[in-house]
Amino acid sequence: MGRQPCCEKVGLKKGPWTAEEDKKLVNFILTNGQCCWRAVPKLAGLLRCGKSCRLRWTNYLRPDLKRGLLSKEEEKMVIDLHSQLGNRWSKIASHLPGRTDNEIKNYWNTHIKKKLRKMGIDPMTHKPLPSVPPDEPPQQAADAIDRGDSQKLDDEIETTTSQESLMRDMESLLETASATSPVHFCTDEVPLLQPHEFAAPSSEFQTPCTEWQESAYLCGNDLDFIYDEWESQRSVLEDHESWKFELF
DNA sequence: AAGCCAATCAACCGCCGTGAG
DNA sequence: ACTCACGGCGGTTGATTGGCT
Fold it and tell me: Which residues form the Myb-like domain (predicted)?
C-alpha cells in the first residue's frame, strides 16, 4: 500500500506560475501568515498543490530573498560549507541570508562544480582530482603536439599553469574561510539559530522591503502590487510572531 | 535567418523525519 | 507501539534563453 498523495492531483495546475497566481498566494500569506500548506491553495483560490505553493513562496515570492548571482563571499561560504556538510543544501542555505536551498543547489551545479573541476578539485570530496603525472602532458596538449599546433600547445600550457595557481589560490581561500568563518561545527552538529538571531529589531525589519522592488523587477513579473501589499501590511506583520520567525 | 546545442533555473517528484492521535 | 499526514529536503526534469555555426 503506497503513501497517500499530498493532495488531490486531479484538476490541479502544474508548470510555471502566472502573475495572477502569485498575486493570490502573496495576498493570502500577507493576510493570514503561513499556516497549513495543504489548506493554502483552497483558501487562496488556487488550483495548485500545497507543496507547490510552499515552494513558490519559499523559493521565489518571499520578500527577504536576494536576487542575482552569489557574491564572491557567498560563493566562498558555499564552498566551505559544502566541504563540511556535503549536499545538505538547506543547512548551507541557512547560513546565507536571503538565499534558498534551491538557488544554492542550482548555483553549485551550474557554476561552482564546473569552476572547481576546472581548477582540478573534485567538487564532491574537495580534494585534488587524480591528475595526469607532471611528465605526461594532458591529452589535449598531446594532440596539439601531434598536430604541430604550437599556438594551441601554448594555450594548453597556459591553462595548466593557471590551473595550478588557481588551485593554490583556492586552497588558501578555503583555509582562510575555515579560519575566519563564524560557523564552527562538525558534520553532524549544525548549530540552531538562537532566539536573538532571528528576532530582528524593527529597523532591520524594513530591509527586505527596500530590496523588494528590485526583486520584483528582476523576476520579470509585474510584482509592484506585492511591494505595495507588503508596505501596507507591514504593521500587521510586525505583530505576527510566525512571520518574524520565518523572515529572520 | 534558421537550426542546433549547452547552460540556466523554476518547478516537480518522491523519500524521509517528525509529531499528533 | 503504531499509523498517518504534513513539512522539508535533495535529486531530477523540462522549458526557456543565449551563443554558436
Answer: 9-61, 62-112
